[in-house]
Design a protein that fits this description.
By secondary structure, the chain is an alpha+beta fold. 40% of the residues lie in helices and 22% in strands. α1 packs across α2, α1 packs across α3 and α1 crosses α4. It is elongated and about 75 Å long.
Length: 318
């Protein structure tokens, strides 16, 4: 448990008289504030607050502990100031999480470059293609690609993620090339959905359309979708950072270039903006510099040619 963070949270609750207001001041989720309080009470072996649906008040133990905890926090701040002045080189350990596809294609090399600048910062990287609880997994930083983050999440956008619709030449020779978004309904589509309606969100100009698609294969892992597309299983919507080489050498063919899939945000998700460890702030700034800008670094290369028509498709559509 982060004892200093828990003490700081308790003091803010006492000052504000509310867990919700304390969460707003500290820029934490209310769930995180509750966990800090519960952890501190377990550590001290006493209930610090009386809580009702309308208000909170200090217990007898809380009233006795509050001034002493204020002194502890002030003393800790003094110690940190003294030791920080003596040691200027950033050091520490960070736990990160992101998808396997983004870790393999971009994040790992970025971390290696970051550690060459700051060799005393250690990094543990957990790869998952699902949203995990940062508190339970002791995660300092999650790199997430989405336009729909959960309410209360503390995040900084550090870049953008573009995607393409693509398929293998073998699949297109057999099934033809879709000319319009509505044509996708007649194709096998490899989707990133479980137990819900699969759809592609495509934009042309300022108009965004949702196209329902179907297919016999889905997966929560982008690497599986790419391999299935390469094997000729159907059409897939894949991030450009993960298929740039396949598109360049013609192993996959871009489709419907006039209808771009919805651009997603690349986000650095953290527990709190307050009291960030210096190594964490340095890493987020480094990643924003590396992946930011109007175009991500992997999108700055000239796009490969797209496929609009094939001999088979010409026969199907006059």
């Amino acid at each position: 448990m982060d004892h200093l963070g828990a003490i700081r949270t308790f003091i803010e609750i006492a000052d504000q008289g509310s867990l919700t207001r304390a969460a707003e001041v500290l820029d934490l989720s209310r769930a995180m504030v509750s966990r800090h309080l519960e952890g501190l009470e377990q550590w001290l072996g006493a209930r610090l607050l009386h809580r009702t649906t309308r208000r909170v008040s200090l217990s007898d133990a809380g009233q006795e502990a509050l001034p002493r905890l204020r002194q502890m926090l002030e003393l800790a701040s003094d110690v940190q100031a003294v030791t920080g002045a003596r040691r200027t080189e950033p050091a520490g350990k960070l736990r990160l999480t992101t998808s396997l596809s983004f870790a393999v294609s971009n994040l790992t090399r970025a971390i290696v470059e970051f550690q060459s600048r700051y060799p005393r910062i250690e990094v543990e990287l957990l790869t998952v293609d699902r949203t995990i609880d940062l508190v339970d997994e002791r995660i300092d930083l999650a790199i997430r690609i989405s336009n729909r983050l959960d309410d209360g999440v503390v995040a900084r956008q550090i870049g953008t993620c573009r995607s393409v619709l693509c398929a293998s030449p073998a699949y297109l020779e057999q099934r033809g090339v879709p000319q319009w978004p509505e044509d996708l309904g007649a194709h096998e589509c490899i989707t990133h959905a479980f137990g819900s309606r699969a759809e592609y969100r495509l934009r042309k100009g300022g108009r965004l359309v949702n196209i329902a698609v179907r297919g016999s294969l889905s997966s929560n892992e982008t690497a599986v979708l790419r391999e299935a597309a390469l094997a000729g299983a159907g059409i897939a919507m894949l991030p450009t950072y993960f298929v740039e080489d396949e598109l360049a050498r013609g192993a996959l063919v871009r489709l419907l270039p006039d209808h771009e899939p919805e651009v997603l945000g690349l986000h650095a998700v953290i527990l709190s903006r307050q009291h960030q460890p210096r190594p964490l702030k340095l890493l987020i700034d480094f990643l924003a510099e590396r992946f930011g800008g109007d175009l991500a670094p992997w999108d700055r290369k000239p796009p490969p040619p797209s496929r609009r028509k094939t001999r088979i498709d010409t026969k199907r559509r006059p």
